[in-house]
Every structure is written in structure tokens, then in C-alpha cells.
Amino acid sequence: MAIQSELNGILSPGEECDDGDAGNTDGQYGTCTRACKYAAFCGDGVVNGPEECDLGSRNGLDLGKGGCTYGCTRPPYCGDGVIDLERGEQCDLGDLNGLRLDSNGQPSDAGRVYCDKECTIIGGIL
After folding, report:
1. What sign does the CA torsion over 28, 43, 34, 19 have?
2. Rounded to whole angstroms, how far apart are CA atoms 3 and 23?
3. How far apart are alpha carbons 49 and 11 in whole angstroms?
4. Structure confidence at residue 68 (pLDDT)
5. What is the sign, positive or negative, of the torsion defined by CA atoms of 17, 21, 23, 25?
6. Is 19 exposed, middle or buried (0-12, 13-18, 19+ CB in 10 A)?
7. What is the mean pLDDT of each run of 10 residues along the chain (126 residues)?
8. What pLDDT shows up at residue 119?
9. For residue 66, what are the contacts with CB-CB under 8 A and spacing of at least 6?
10. Under a CB-based contact definition with an 8 Å cutoff, are residues 36 and 24 in contact?
11. Spatial separation of the C-alpha atoms in residues 10 and 50, rounded to whole Å
């Protein structure tokens, strides 16, 4: 026998949430549906709404490349192309980290390495 949701603002058996008749809405990110089930939200393991990522219960635990913050945004990491001084990065050329670059910043066997894969400057100035 299915449990009937009452939309009364009281969490009853079988309901995930209940914000009452006026509070339960369908189709809105981060709300409680009229069936008293959670609508899409950050942490449900599905990228939806304004999210950049969503690893479900792993959000906030893996903050490297491929990780996801508790707020469902991509965390900074060495190799993202953004120099993050607070995390100790001296440089960050994204996918070009660790490659030899010529004076125009293009990959070259004859060039010098400017930024290693740990985002540390080596062999010169960027």
C-alpha cells in the first residue's frame, strides 16, 4: 500500500521532505516536490541546475582534477590554467605544464621548461 503524502509540513513515514502545501513545488532545483521527494540538489550525484559537477557523497572529499566541492563547483588544481598563489602555485599553464615551450609559448623540443606538473617555475621566467 502506497503512503499518501499529506503536504502538511510534517515529515511522515515515506516522505523525504515536506514543506507544506505552499512550500512543496515541482521542477525547482533544491526544493521538495509535491510528492514529498527531494528535487534535484547539489549532492544527489547528478549534474543539474547550476552545478558544474556533482559526485554525490564524495563532494568536498576529492578536490583535485576531476573533484567537486561541497557547493558543486570545480575546485582549483594544478593544471587548470589558473595560478593559485594561496595553494602555492608559482605558475599554471594548464595542459602545457611540464612541456618545453619556445619563446612564443608553443610546445617545442628546443624550448625551455617553464612550469612543471607541480606548478613550479623551472628554468626561467614565465
Report:
1. negative
2. 20
3. 25
4. 95
5. positive
6. middle
7. 67 88 81 89 93 94 87 93 92 87 71 82 69
8. 92
9. none
10. yes
11. 29
**How far, in Å, CA of 44 to CA of 11, rounded?**
20
In the numeric block, which cell numbers belong to residue 85? 598563489
Count of H-run helices and E-run strands, the chain: 1, 2
The full DSSP string for 19-65 is -HHHH--SS-TTSB-TTSSB-S-TTSSS--TT-S---GGGTTT--ST
Instruction: Give the cell for residue 1.
Output: 500500500
For residue 42, which amino acid is it? C
Amino acid in the structure at residue 60: G
The pLDDT value given to residue 111 = 65
Neighbouring C-beta atoms of residue 93, cutoff 10 Å: 18
Most distant CA pair in the chain, distance: 74
**3 state DSSP class of 85:** helix
**Closest residue by Cα to residue 93 from 74, 113, 73, 111:** 113
Per DSSP, the three-state class of 107 is strand
